[in-house]
Structures are given as C-alpha cells and as structure tokens.
Amino acid sequence: MAALFLRFCHRKFSAVGISRLPKADNLDTYQLHSKLKHGTLLGVFDLLREYSSGSGTTKFDFTDLTSPHTWYPKARKKRRKVILHVGPTNSGKTHNALKQLESSPSGIYCGPLRLLAWEVAKRLNKANVPCDLITGQEREEVDGAKHKAVTVEMADVTSDYSCAVVDEIQMLGCKTRGFSFTRALLGISADELHLCGDPAAVSLIEEILKVTDDDVKVEYYERLSPLVPLKKPLGSFWNIQTGDCIVAFSRREIYRMKKKIESAGKHLCSVVYGSLPPETRTRQATMFNDASSEFDVLVASDAIGMGLNLNISRIIFSTMKKFDGVEMRDLTVPEVKQIAGRAGRYRSKFPVGEVTCLHADDLSLLHSSLESPSPNLETAGLFPTFDLMYMYSRLHPKSGIYQILEHFLENAKLSPNYFIADCAEMLKVAAFIDEMPLSLHDKYLFCISPVDMNDEISSQGLTQFAENYAKKGIVRLKEIFTPGTLMVPKTQSNLEELESIHKVLDLYIWLSFRLEDFFPDRELAASQKSLCSLLIEQFLERLGWQRPTAKRLRSRNVSTSLSSKNVRRYL
Ligand SMILES: Nc1ncnc2c1ncn2[C@@H]1O[C@H](COP(=O)(O)OP(=O)(O)OP(=O)(O)O)[C@@H](O)[C@H]1O
Ligand SMILES: [Mg+2]
User: Fold this and answer.
1) N or C, where is the chain less crowded by C-beta within 10 Å?
2) For the whole model, what pTM was predicted?
3) How many other CB atoms are found less than 10 A from the CB of residue 5?
4) Which stretches make up the Helicase ATP-binding domain (predicted)?
C-alpha cells in the first residue's frame, strides 16, 4: 500500500514539474514545541483576534515575507559586531573564528555538517572550554558548558551569546538548506557574529544586513599553502600514489574505482560519500588520515567538499560532470574549488596540494574553474516560520499542510534579496500524511524531518511512524524493526539497504527528540544504528583487496546476507 502511494506521489510530483526531490534536514523545532506547550504563541492569537475582529484597521498578510529580520526580536535588540571571514579554501577562516569562540565567555558554532559540529565540539572540549554537541539526532551535554557546537538547522535564536560562528555561510544560497543559514544570519543574538565562507557571499550579506543596524566588517584571507593545478592527467590507475583522493559522483563509480585501484595490488582505499552513515564517514576519513593505517588512498564524492581536514596530497577528478537530480551537468566553479581545496591542507602531512583529472579532456575545465572567481550570490533562502503557517491555518481551518505549504510557495512576497526555499521534499511528505488525524504541528514535524523520500525504505519508515503515531500515539521500534536481524551485507544492493535502514533509525531518533513521550525507544534505535554502521564498515573492509602478508584488520565472521525481502519485514 505504502509503495503504491509512493508511486502515486512520484507521478503527481512529476506532473507538476517537481522532479528534483531534495533532502529535508533536521530543523530545530524544540523552541516551537515548547512555545506551543507553554502557550507563548499568545501573540499569535492576539494577532488573529485583531485580524478577525473586522475592525478594518488591521490587515495582516501572512504570506508577506519581505521583512524577515523582524522575525527575530532578540537579535534586533543588539547592534551585533559582524565579522565576515572570507577567502579561498584552506585559508584559516574557520580556525580564526573558532579562536574567538574559544576565548569568549559563551558561544555557539553552527556548521553545515554533523562532522564539522563534532570536530568543533571536540576541539573546544580539548581546549578546556566545555562545549555541548547538538545536532538533529544527538545531544551530548557537558557539565557547565556555555558553548554549543550545532548543525545550522539547530541554531538557537532565543538565547544570548557573546560569540557565534556560522561556517560555510555561502550556503545561504542553497535551494533547500539556504533558509537555515539565513535564519542563523538574521536570528542569532550574539555580541559578535563570525561568518566564514566564500567571498561570493559578501555583497549579498552586506545588503541583507543593511536593515539590521549591525556593524559589518569584512576580513579577506589568502590560502595558507599552495594548490598546484597539474598540466598532466592521471591517465592510468597505475599512477595512483599514497595520499591521492579520486573524486567520483555515484556510489557505483566509487566502488568501481576502489576495486580497480585495489586490484592493482599497491593501495587500499577508504571511501567517503553522502549516504554512508556520518560516523562511518568519520572513521573512513580517520583511517585515511592515519599514516600507520594501510588505507592510503581515498575514493570520495563531493561529500568531502566542505571544511573537512584530510591528509590529501592530490585530488583527481574522475569526471567533471555530475548528475544533480535533474540532469548531468558540468561541475560549477564553486564546486570545483571546494573539492580541489581539500588537497594540501596547511600543517598536514602534504602541505603542498596538487589537483588534476583522470582524463586529459577534462583538464581545461578544471584549470579555467580554478582561475575563475565564484559568481556572486544574488539571493538567500527563506522559509516561513511555523508561527506564520499556524496563523494562516487558523484562518483557513480546512486546509491541510500540503495546501498551506503550496499557498506559501505560490503567494510568498519576498524582497529582492531572497528566494523561497525549494520544499518539494516537504510537499511530498505532506501529501503522504495529510489524510492522517494529526495536528498541524505534528504534520509540520514530519514534513521537516530528515527523511529521504527518494529512498523507498526511508519513506516507508516515515509512513509507518506517522501511521502508528496517528493511530496509537506511542511508536515502539520493535513493532517495525526486529533487533538482532542485521547482518554484514554481501552485495552492493545489500549495502544500499543497510544504509537505508540506518536512515530510518536516524529518523526515529530525530522524532524521539521532538516527540519524546511518543517515541520512547531512542536507546534501542541508537544501538541498532551504531550496529548498522559497524556492519557497513565490515563490508567495506572485506571489499578491500588484502595483501597476503599484510596485517589483517579486525573483522567479524558473519556470513549471512540481508535480503531485500528481509528489509521489508523490518519496516
Ligand atoms: N594560525 C594557524 N595556526 C595553526 N593552524 C592553523 C592556523 N590557521 C589555520 N590552521 C589550520 O589549517 C587548516 C585549514 O584551516 P581552516 O580549516 O580554518 O581553513 P578554512 O579557510 O576554513 O578552509 P575551508 O574553506 O576549507 O573550510 C586547519 O587544519 C587549521 O587548523
Ligand atoms: Mg572552514
């Protein structure tokens, strides 16, 4: 049934021209939840009363999003000192901003990736600055912490900080996640706000902050160690060396290259790509970084492109094209620069970075991209707050969340600095859950949850969770998942299924942080999730060619496989 509905939705969406279905991410609804719980949406009701009083004096257009800076009164009470740290990759932008954060009495770091938030929390705690780690799926609280490292969707716009850092700020131009960066930019109430990123974002940010009365200063950086574009392509995999990173844009290609390089008998490869569990990605990256490990080559997707510090000596683009969900297209200038910039990190084992392509035909695009400035960003993402949607729904009580979202998308009025976020993925979830007897708030939660609707198992997981929640209130993990049944995958498709199961468990944990009383099995989900990543890593180890004399890596002897049928049974 769920699968049928899924196919129906696919048809429905391609019919209205939404073929690209981006991944919704972990937006913070903690504050919203507590607002609803503690009745602090009172102002909303006042506004509604005023609106519906018929006095004719107040006309409030909820789709008017032309002044988003007014959504954050706490930040507007301050004249923030905003420092933009801009420059090429590997120029010390984040490092310098973090130094300020460390030396401030309280602060928050907001990054685009869980891995970056982890790195920052680790760095601060090591420097004896107690720091909490908060992502959509983790809460690691440290005694006495006045600092937080968070993923940008979790940026706290209700507390006061002396210092805040928003990393990779150029992502405010991202179609799907940009609005969370805009929210952090406008909403964080800090005496000092450090923004790190590409110079292409400077003029847009200056323009946006004209209305906030903040004091804005720009600091330009230079790359700390050289990056040399090579004139010769790699040509053959025989020319692979220790410290190389081959970049490919599909899982299939990544594994094909790993196999090809390893079968030559000289190197073992770590892999990093988007749908690997974050903890697996970290461990693969750590193994590659560790000089004593045998995994001396990395095969990765653009998942390595942001902020991570890896011991890469040379980046090799296996292709200069990628499929972006709609079509095969050339890599953009910022994409090429971000990825190439991973080579030769300052103070790493390979301080001079090199970059080339596998094929000679691709070299001209590589060289021209590296020489071009990134085009200036023109608009930042924006998305209506839940409060606005809630008010709208009070006036149109018959509308489901699908209609409300659609209405906002069609009618939103924006100033020229903004675009409305692409919420095709949210609409898809909305179509699934609109018929269920759930409150608007619950529907909104499911819509913004980190479900991958392109992944059938992940979307079935969401449907089951929402259905059980609507029917029974409480959602027990064991009703849809049998612990003890996960096994080491044997094939690529088994691996894909395990990655999907990991996503479903991750979704359960995400929901458990927001609907705590109704999703009580967080610990079980977390332990099964860790098991998933362990099993995936065992698969990766076994996949690797093993030198007969080399010391073998630890690996468990589990021989059963995970069939597609089994997976359906779990969910
Ligand atoms: N002054 C410094 N002293 C010691 N190490 C530094 C210094 N500046 C930067 N580094 C180190 O250099 C590396 C690159 O710095 P950083 O990550 O800040 O660069 P970035 O400009 O933010 O790069 P990206 O655009 O890729 O995020 C890091 O490992 C960082 O710790
Ligand atoms: Mg950085």
Assistant:
1) N
2) 0.84
3) 14
4) 74-190
